[in-house]
Amino acid sequence: DLPILPIGESSVPGAKRIVPLANNEATEPPSAAAQEAARKAMAGANFYPSVTHAELKSAIGAAYGVDPAKVVCGNGSSEIIALLAQAYAGLGDEVIIGRHGYLYFSICARMAGAAPVYAVSAGNANHLSFGLQAALDAVTPKTRIVFLDNPCNPLGTYVSRNDLRTFRDKLPEDVLLVIDGAYADYATADDFDPGDDLVLAGENTVVLRTFSKIYGLAGLRVGWAHAPASVEEVLNKVMRPGNLSSVSLAASEAAAKEQALVVNRRKRNQLARDAFAASLEADLGFTVLPSQANFLLVTPPPNAPMDASALYEGLMAEGVLVRQMGPYQLPDSLRISVGTDEEMNIALAAIKMLEAA
Ligand code: PLP
Fold this sequence. Notes:
The protein has helices at residues 32-43, 54-64, 76-88, 103-111, 132-138, 161-170, 196-201, 229-238, 246-256, 259-284, 308-317, 341-355; strands at 19-20, 71-74, 94-98, 115-119, 122-124, 127-129, 143-149, 176-180, 205-210, 223-226, 287-288, 295-299, 320-321, 323-324, 334-337. It is α/β, with parallel strands linked by helices. The strands form four sheets. A seven-stranded mixed beta sheet has the order 2-10-9-8-7-3-4, sandwiched between helices. The protein has a four-stranded antiparallel beta sheet with strand order 11-12-15-14, covered by helices on one side.
């Protein structure tokens, strides 16, 4: 009875235009430099790719201020999540996951033979976030890993630098803390911190990042871990050689060198996201969780003409694809990714039209 990971729809028969807001992808395509690097790499695709990923690691090191020797690159961060679960947890073990966290964590725990243990989220309907105390309370001698997505998917909320540090301090030393920063490139809060200091402070914290979001490379499957030496060694032992294609390596290396673009995209995302949230709240009385990511968790008020499920169907008929939250135990809410300004206007107009019905 593994949970089914909902895959976003990419087409709707008969729709005039698709507005793809279901998968938290970047709304922008890969940069021109990344596309050019991919084209060049394609011309040499008769050769096997690098198995050391040395050039990509060094570009990541320069962009993120981390030691390239502590970077491990994966076929998307998903590959690293799966390998960490398999390498560190097994039959009879427990893996702690946020009740409303990323579904793939529990799939990987189960694939490894371990039991996912869900930590109830903290807060209330207006501000739900990863339940740090609940996660600590859930620790037993069988606990091997805590997966903490920060910012959280699908909540969009985050755990602050101090709370993260205190949490690590209170966790037993032999429990691996995996901080999944898939959306960290979008975060702007002053007290947000991806957690790299914790990686350097011991052997029991890993930070995951991805090129699938702000860099617009979801289709090429590149993610990475900032890991202490012992974890890096384990990951390199179990990683499939040649897990990244030469095209993916070249494109992500070029993308990592364009940090000015990342800054611009972060700013645009923030403006589009916050304007959309403000309209839903002010004009329609929706509850919208404060987001540090490129998506919003939105809940229609109880008296709205359409509840989350009717709204989902209505939006789908209009070609606006969003994500239902039943599998995340949030059936009254929808997750809406941040698209272009035009796409957000279309989505907003469609929601207003449907909720006026
Ligand atoms: N972690 C979280 C929290 C995500 O939401 C996602 C994808 O949506 C991933 C990891 C997977 O990212 P990747 O494309 O790097 O495998």
